[in-house]
Amino acid sequence: MKSIQQISFSILCVLLIAACVPTKKYKDLERQSVLNKRESDSLRNVVDANRNLKYDIIRLEKQLDTKQKEIDELQSRFLALTQNNQDLLVRYNQLLAQNGDILSTSSSEKQNLTEELATKQNELDQRERDLRRLEDNLKSQEQSLLALQQRLQQKENEMNGLEGANAESQAQLRELQALLQQKDETLIELRRSVNQALLGFTEADLQVSEKNGKIYVSLSQNLLFAPGSKSIDWKGKQAIMQVAEVLKSHPDILVNVEGHTDADGAADYNWDLSAQRATAVVKVITAQGVDPKRVTASGRALYDPVAPNTSSANKAANRRTEIILSPKLDVLYRIINQ
Predict the structure, then answer these.
(1) Quick one: 242 and 169 in the same domain?
(2) b/e code 248-260 from CB counts within 10 Å (16+ = b)
(3) Residue 293 domain boundaries
(4) pLDDT tens-digit profile of 106-161?
(5) What's CA 296's distance to the chain center, in Å?
């Protein structure tokens, strides 16, 4: 039962991780969550099967003990009948000898002796039939005992296999939990480093937050761009460069730069502007030495606002560029897919 709780906790952790991956991988993690649920159900079935196998072994051991007692009793009866048969043969031979001595006696005595001999012969034949029947019964019991022993060995082998599978699953669960803890510690250190690097900027210019297992550095349009422009201002460039220095010391962090606009103007224009602004930020980050393979630029236009576009203050909040930092999950995927 403890393994099931750990596995359930693992599934919950994996579901939490699913929120940490980029949007384009969300469906993949959803499918992975379903697979993990099936694995949890499979492991629960394994535990139930293990319990049933233990009950079967106890029952088979009792049957084995009963069969052994029956065989011992049959062997005792067989030995007793064998001894009785030998005694009858001795008596039969004695009667034959006596019969030879009294052949000259009266016909009535001969008749009695003949009848007695016939009776003894019938008894002897019956004993022999009983012996053969006991021999057949003993062979049958021995075969049943052998079959029970084979079934018991098979159950023990199945139990050993299930215990090995449970041990492997527990090892994978411990490895997954260690990686999750390491990811959380990395995010804490990353957020601390980013906050330290951006101490000189006001909250109106930028904000650093954590949600869904990612670090969000939200930069206002006033800090980065003039209205309608895709060229980064000097002060905004300084902020991006400082974030890039932090990223260089965290090579396992993925970077997604998202451009956002308000709802004013044509949607097509906002698409282009948001993508161009995100690309401009990415160029500054990579120019500082951050591996371009870690960085993605995307334009979200007006379709992911932080507030309704119903006031000037809300529109200003929506005109932003977000640098989203998240840990690589390749190792976690490998463990989940095993």
Answers:
(1) no
(2) eebeebbbbbbbb
(3) 198-337
(4) 567 777 878 877 887 877 777 777 667 766 766 766 676 677 677 777 777 776 66
(5) 33
